[in-house]
Specification:
heterodimer, A: mainly alpha, 3 helices, B: 167 residues, mainly alpha, 0% strand, globular
Chain lengths: 99, 167
Amino acid sequence: MYLVEFLMLSAVLFCFGVYGVLARKNGVLVLMSIELMLNAVNINLVAFGAFHGGAIGQSFALFVIAVAAAEVGVGIAIILLIFRNRASVDLDEVDLMRG
Amino acid sequence: MIAQQIAFGILAATMVLASWRLVTTKNVVHAGLLLAVVLAGVAGIFVLLAAEYVAVVQVLVYIGAVVVILLFGTMLTRARIGEDVGLDNDQRWLAAIVSLFLLGVIGTILWQGFRHAGGDGKIHPGALVRASDVSDTLFGPYGIPFEVASVLLLAALVGAVAIARRD
């Protein structure tokens, strides 16, 4: 297995995630795209960890998983609050700070 | 080595297809299920890289918890069951250009920088990293970051309850 295969796979997943964050306006789908990007990063960490040997890459992947779990909890709470206030999760309508 | 190569090809093709459908599908529930497919593929990649502990955590935390939370969010925000038209905004082509440009930049840099990394660019399964090695790292040199992560999880839990509760 070549290291660069894993890096390419993770780059493709990351760019799909970027596309999803930019092009979606449903809040839940934006959160899903963010999860996609975080997973691409995890593939990179574990692949480099296996390449260099040692457990540090896997430990960092575990930290990323913990932070992602915290992020999705708060994110879904914010989206539920937006839905309760506006009866929609359309992120284009959340433009309170537009000049 | 050949078997690992074939497994990697199957996993990678599945994940790329599923994530492509994930960001283009018109059905929110399908998007959640496709996310589960991608996350399972990532767990398979971890197994290929001999990181079985991270793979198990991936299945438990992501497929077990995160996908369920996202599907709950889908349900609670009363997404349409079936096709929905208003899921994409009108910057779709701009977003496609930006992400393709990003893929080109990242891909070129990684390809040029790591094609021959360490001589032949291959991952040599050296000394097996066991779960005990991971825990020695987590509770040894990374003990303080580990505690900070648990405080972060607690803060996020309390914060989520505080944000979402009805007064």
